């Protein structure tokens, strides 16, 4: 029995889809004005695990993911610059070029992390008529008002249950209201459905509408596209925890007002990857702070993308994961140990060898318990070490578990691990030279490059020695 945490009910509940064994899944995608950072990618790994677990439990999934390529402003309070136009100005390209480039980079990142692509990719700019139709529907029902020179807004005071996802109450909202409130808003929580282009200037991305030339508000796209591809009632909607109080809250308000009934049964949110700060509070990895790591950078430092995936699985998706190079190195070593075990067991596998029930039961119990991946990994390691069981059956068990883990068990190859003692010695010399020249970045890079191949370095007064992890 699959049990999943639902942000709306704030409890772990037995999962039941609306329609027999079919599951509609909508996940908020990336705003493509820059690369995804590894905190974003952690969330997409969580969503991939969710999808794989649903499949493992026998459900058929229809998964839709959007690409935000217009309308996401630098402030969640409908003020600030459009992130796309800001990205375009930064790089001296058009907003359209920026969107195309970073969308491709995003798709490539997901592929390198062995994330199963969605059945439908949908871009906000390809769905302008659907978004206008949604705003019109809300206007007809009396949920909107226009602020001259600014945009069409949703009147949140029309709803008695606004903010139910995060249990916001009116008083708490007033106290927590942002300072940069749009003039003319009737309530602090009201939000833009359609924004007008600034008077006297032409935006790169703008469209005519019944209310004036402009562009859709950020939240409008997800409601319009989710309903278009998955219908008026949805099984699961996912995103990051930072989406809860504004983006998803507003998606709920506008969709339920437009259709007059409950929209989503399960809301699921992935926690942040945080950067611990010495003597201070851990900070969320974010692009606005300018400090963020990409998957490309990890690969350049010698890490296998699958080792990053393995690293993500070591924490439950509802817990913050503290990032450090040491933790990533440890995950890299663990991943390589798995790889060597797989190669060893695979050589002794025969076609008739099936998975071992006892270990699969333990694994299933873990993943069905709100995607408890740390426990699932423990079950996986227990299976590898079960000396009572024939090696071929242990291999078959790993292959079966990998339907959920997605670590690429069947494709693990010898050469990914191989590194000769000569090459290791050469890199150790290079690292010593880098340290002498105080180029610690290069020295660290060499350490992690070797770590990714399962080689651990040990420094002592006599010099550096190495061993296989
Ligand atoms: Zn969204």
Structural shape: globular
The low-pLDDT segments are none
Taking all Cα atoms into account, the compactness measure Rg is 25 Å
Q: What gap, in angstroms, lies between the N and C termini?
A: 38 Å
Please identify the oligomeric state: single chain
Ions and ligands: zinc ion
Mean pLDDT: 91
Plain-language structure description:
The protein is of the alpha/beta class and about 475 residues long. Helix content is about 45%, strand content about 15%. It has a five-stranded parallel β-sheet, sandwiched between helices. Strands 6-7-8-9 form a four-stranded antiparallel β-sheet. The longest helix has 22 residues, at about 325-345. The chain is globular. The model has no long low-confidence stretch (mean pLDDT about 90). The site of zinc ion has 3 residues, from loops. Zinc ion (ZN) binds near residues 28, 222 and 247.
Summarize the structure.
The chain is an alpha/beta fold.
Task: Write out key terms for the chains shown.
15 helices; four-stranded antiparallel β-sheet; binds zinc ion; 469 residues; 16% strand; five-stranded parallel β-sheet; alpha/beta
Please write out the topology.
Elements (H helix, E strand, L loop, with lengths): L2 E4 L4 E4 L7 E6 L10 H19 L3 E8 L15 H9 L3 H18 L7 E4 L4 H13 L3 E4 L3 E4 L15 H7 L14 E6 L17 E3 L1 H13 L3 E7 L3 H16 L4 E7 L2 E3 L7 E2 L10 H6 L4 H9 L7 E2 L2 H22 L10 H12 L4 H12 L6 H15 L15 H16 L3 H13 L2 E6 L2 E6 L1
Parallel strand pairs: 3-4, 3-10, 4-5, 10-11, 12-14
Antiparallel strand pairs: 1-2, 6-7, 7-8, 8-9, 12-13, 15-16
The site of zinc ion (ZN) has 3 residues, from loops.
